[in-house]
Every structure is written in C-alpha cells, then in structure tokens.
Amino acid sequence: NKQVIFKDYVPGVLKESDMYITTSTIKLKVPEDCTNGVLVKNLYLSCDPYMRNRMRNFQGSYISPLKPGSPISGRGVAKVLDSRHPDYKKGDFIWGMTGWEEYSLITATETLFKIHDKDVPLSYYIGILGMPGLTAYAGFYEICSPKKGEFVFISAASGAVGQLVGQFAKLLGCYVVGSAGSKDKVDLLKNKFGFDDAFNYKEELDLDAALKRYFPDGIDIYFENVGGKMLDAVVLNMRVRGRISVCGMVSQYNLEQPEGVHNLMHLVPKRIHMEGFLVHDFFHLFPKYLDMVLPYIKQGKIVYVEDIAEGLENAPAALTGLFAGRNIGKQVVAVSHE
Ligand code: NDP
C-alpha cells in the first residue's frame, strides 16, 4: 500500500520534502473486530489549502493537527472493496475523509457520502460536487445575501472555490470581476467562466488603483480567498453596506506571522458586514446544493476546471503547488482511475 507520510510539523513555507512516500502491506479485508469499518481503494484525492494548517502543532483550531509519521488525511473519492458497515457494500463509490494512500480502512464513517449520480466525472465529488462546491454556495448565497446587478469581486478566482462563486454570481445577474496570478488564469476567468473582467494581481503595483479601474462605483460583495494586501485594498473600495465573505486567506498560510491589515477602520463608516464562515456548518444544505448544481452541470450552464496530477507520488508537489499558484482550477491527485 503506497502512502504519502507527513513527516513533522512545518514552520514557514510547506515543502515537498515535508512529506515522503513509503510502502506498507495491508490486508484487503475489514478485520472482524472492526465494526462499521469500510475498506476502500482510493481513486482521487483532494489538495486543499486548509491541509497546510493541519501541519502545524496548533491545538486551538476547528480541526486537529495531522499526526507526524502518519499518512496525510484528506478528502477523496474511493471505491468500496469490503465493508462491515450496513450502509456501504462492495462496489459502492463514496467520497469523504480518507488517506493519502492506495487503500484505506475507514472507521470514521460519519464523514462518508455515497455517490449516487455517476453521469459526471467522479473527481467532481471532491470539487464542484463536494466540499469546495458547498463552500462556494454557502459562502456566496448564505453569507453575502447577493442581489441581481450587484458588483462582485473574487480573489483566487480561478481556483476550486473561486471559479464557482463567479459563475453563481453571473447566473444571478451580478457584475463579476476576479483576480488571479497568471495570464492563463485571467483568460480562463474571462473566456471560460464568463466573468465580466479579470486581472493578474501580480502585475499590479497598486491594488487599490487596479480595483478603482474595475469598480469605479465600488464593490458590493467581496469573496475573500487570499487576505493580506488584497483585503487591505478591497476595504478601500467597498460600497456602503457592502458584504465581505471571509472564506480563507491563503496568502497567510505559509507565514509564521500573519501580515497586518491596516484599513479595517473603513468598515465603520461604510457599515460593511464582514463575516467568516466554515463550510462544516452548512452540510445540511448539501442536498439543496446538489439539486441546484447538478442540472446546471448537465445543461452546461456551469463548467468546472480541474488540474489533475497523475499518481500518488506527485501528491506532495500538487499540495505545495497550491501556495505557489501552480494549480489551474481544482487541484486533484488521481491515484487510480478505477
Ligand atoms: P485554490 O484552488 O484557489 O488554490 C489556491 C490558490 O490560491 C492558488 O492557485 C493561487 O492562485 C492562490 N494563492 C496562493 N498563494 C497566494 C498568495 N500568496 N497570494 C494570493 N493568492 C495566492 O484553493 P481553494 O479554492 O480550494 O481555496 C480557496 C480559499 O478558500 C482558501 O483560502 C481556502 O482556505 C478557503 N476555503 C475555506 C473553506 C471554509 O470552510 N471557509 C472551505 C474551503 C476552502 P493565484 O495563481 O490566483 O494566486
């Protein structure tokens, strides 16, 4: 059983060498004393920015740190090979928390979902039909209270979450601009996802001036994925009673000391509502979300771009690549295609 092991807690920038590949043996049967255990073959693994924060020895978080010397845990799509759980049988496809390894014995089965609709790529269940999809949905509709015609700005806009927020906002009739870190990503935002406009933030010396160019009348909704300097510039450009949905701050995850944000006093006179959220609080909306998004996917009204790294041995590079912006779209690792 090939595995990706997390070496030890990581200060500063996450590197590929903070993980290593090893091989162990595993019996492809659920042990008799493992009530409710499910043995799976992992097909697709998700690389998510929050995983870096589990590589710190920080106990106060909403999610526990990874255990040094153990396989990395994360969301994946898998096929059931053997089961002692009444809800899962051999041959079922599932998604949920699994391990960065070829085969996993899953005992925390409350995190698993059975896959019923297989007309779409299975990898979508760790992207548009999984946690990032629900994040975009809850973070936009529940946190931002969006209305037709509003001006929406999204950072890390071509990523797993951002590309969906932009498409949801366009379907609602908003004016949507995204920022991303390369020309290819900007082209994708404008030509594939239908954003009204987009810019490469790395080419802008003055982010405040860039935002004034794209939003001369200001921003109603900011979907925050990056934090730091971008947040500082956005606050200056928000309209009165604007909403900021704080989904994440990926620019800060590899820093030992988070950057200071200086312009928050503007929230007061502009009466801005700024709210952080965790997707975990919105899993009850999952059925409603799937009812909305599956038809959109099948009708081609929403598209989803994935960046698929082939093979478990490429998983460390895929994960570290998130923080260098190497992924174009949702970063997935294909362990096996069936
Ligand atoms: P992405 O697919 O967007 O990948 C991360 C992207 O972040 C990179 O491709 C890169 O894009 C950008 N990035 C990396 N480093 C920096 C930096 N220093 N400055 C600016 N941009 C940077 O990831 P996701 O869509 O999965 O996640 C997006 C955000 O949503 C993250 O902050 C994540 O933590 C958060 N999240 C929050 C959840 C919640 O429950 N609140 C759930 C899921 C995700 P580029 O090339 O454009 O710079």
From TrEMBL:
Name of the protein this chain belongs to: Oxidoreductase N-terminal domain-containing protein
InterPro entries: ADH_N_2, GroES-like_sf, MDR_fam
GO MF annotation list: oxidoreductase activity, acting on the CH-CH group of donors, NAD or NADP as acceptor
Xref: PANTHER family: PROSTAGLANDIN REDUCTASE, PROSTAGLANDIN REDUCTASE 1
Pfam families in UniProt: ADH_N_2
Keywords: Oxidoreductase
Organism domain of life: Eukaryota
